[in-house]
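#structure-requests
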Amino acid sequence: MEIFARGTPAKLAKALEVKAGSPALTVIRRYYGVCEELFELTVTTHPGGGYTYRMDMQRSLGPRV
């Protein structure tokens, strides 16, 4: 997953009800199948202030599966 800030592209600004160039967060996700082939790629743009990212991590001393 890639997450980055950028100005809202003019093509998306009207649909997002914001001004072109206003702050936005873009998320690119890639989905892979069991043979590691890419089967879907999504690009999502969120207007500034409209996205929260949270990740919880736990340390495990067990073997990796």
